[in-house]
Design goal:
By secondary structure, the chain is α+β, with helices and mostly antiparallel strands. It contains three helices and five strands.
Length: 140
């Protein structure tokens, strides 16, 4: 059975670093380190930043879910602005923003978004291989 961890942060840019730290901690607890942990943390940063920046629901909570099961890790970020799905766009070279989803597409094996009854979920999936002799952690 896969291991799953979910946490929530307030929809404010000052909480994005908190989300990164929580993701890092969960990954470390699961034994996911090095380049894979860096990639997942960067993906979480981009998806949480997008949710914080673009969700139009005031006083919203952003939910971050990590699910680790052989052979993949899934990162999901939910916000309550269900009707406003993200769309990748081409950014001009001099623009400061607008490249987050392109980065997610480049780093994740697959990614996407879906409306849910009370939220939208933007997700990224990465293939993981456990080092020989280790097991994917089981859910408590």
């Amino acid at each position: 059975m896969p291991a799953t961890e979910t946490f929530r942060i307030p929809k404010h840019k000052r909480h994005v670093p908190v989300a990164r730290q929580r993701v890092r901690k969960v990954l470390a607890d699961w034994g996911v380190t090095d380049e894979l942990a860096d990639t997942i943390t960067l993906l979480a940063n981009e998806l949480v930043t997008n949710a914080v920046a673009h969700c139009r629901v005031s006083s919203a909570q952003i939910a971050v879910t990590l699910t680790l099961g052989e052979p993949e890790l899934i990162l999901e970020v939910r916000d309550p602005d269900r009707d406003r799905l993200p769309e990748p766009r081409d950014s001009a070279p001099d623009e400061e923003g607008g490249r987050g989803l392109a980065l997610v597409a480049a780093l994740a094996d697959t990614w996407g978004c879906r409306p849910e009854p009370y939220a939208k979920c933007v997700w990224a999936r990465l293939t993981v291989t456990a080092p020989e002799g280790t097991r994917v952690p089981a859910t408590p």
